[in-house]
TrEMBL record:
Name of the protein this chain belongs to: Rab-GAP TBC domain-containing protein
Domain (Rab-GAP TBC): residue spans on this chain: 1-170
One Pfam match: RabGAP-TBC
Keywords noted in UniProt: GTPase activation
InterPro entries recorded: Rab-GAP-TBC_dom, Rab-GAP_TBC_sf
SUPFAM superfamilies: Ypt/Rab-GAP domain of gyp1p (SSF47923)
Molecular function GO terms recorded: GTPase activator activity
Spans annotated as Disordered: 1-28
Length: 232
């Protein structure tokens, strides 16, 4: 339901005081279906906990927020134990460039991105935009796509491939075109089967683990060439 998607009070707020307890809770429920994180004593879980704590201490203006463990786990998986410093460097750099806006106290970072996606949808496919205007005018159903950049829709190797391209994007908005491309490519299903918010949300959730990364990126790049107002 829409209520389940709306962030709970304080969910993305900066945690006051020592965040270690919350970090530990979040780390031990992150990606437990992935082999590298399945065991309670898995080395990568310990690394994740350490790196998130270091980030919170070194960046007190942001601190630690729920959801960050979802963003650092693919980096840990890619670099593994022998490259802890590289994992931290990449996480901190991408946070400073792009992800930190997703953890603003006001929630304005996510809202701004969803508004931009709404504007793009109106340009690219007015029929889909009209449907959203009726069943989900705030585009809350796409909140997760925006927050963690399709991380829960893909297997880890595909997450790494998608994020690598997104990170190379100077405008830092390619993920919005990926979302737009998915809606446009599946427009018949969206228009015929998503007449309520719950049906739309069900459709979005059913796309998990079924995305073709190469196709999604091609669609996103083509759409941005057509509809972007920013300099490439």
């Amino acid at each position: 339901s829409k209520e389940e998607l709306t962030p709970k009070a304080g969910e993305n707020d900066r945690l006051e005081g020592d965040p270690i307890e919350q970090i530990q809770k979040d780390v031990h429920r992150t990606d437990r279906d992935v082999k590298a994180f399945q065991e309670d004593d898995a080395p990568l879980l310990g690394r994740m906990e350490e790196l998130l704590y270091v980030y919170a201490v070194e960046n007190p203006a942001i601190g630690y927020c729920q959801g960050m463990s979802d963003l650092i786990s693919p980096l840990l998986w890619a670099f593994r134990e022998d490259h802890q410093s590289m994992t931290y460097f990449c996480f901190a750099e991408i946070m400073s460039r792009q992800w930190s806006q997703n953890f603003l106290h006001s929630g304005g970072g996510i809202s701004k991105q969803l508004e931009e996606l709404k504007s793009l949808t109106c340009k690219a496919d007015p029929d889909i935009a009209q449907l959203f205007e009726v069943v989900d005018p705030s585009y809350y159903s796409l909140y997760r796509w925006t927050l963690v950049h399709f991380k829960r829709e893909l297997e880890f190797p595909d997450v790494a491939r998608l994020w690598e391209v997104i990170w190379l994007d100077w405008n830092m908005d390619l993920h919005l075109y990926v979302a737009l491309g998915l809606l446009v490519r599946h427009r018949d299903q969206v228009l015929s089967g998503c007449s309520t918010f719950d049906r739309l949300l069900k459709f979005i959730n059913l796309m998990s683990q079924r995305l073709d990364v190469d196709l999604a990126l091609r669609d996103a790049i083509d759409l941005r060439k057509k509809y972007s107002c920013k300099d490439m």
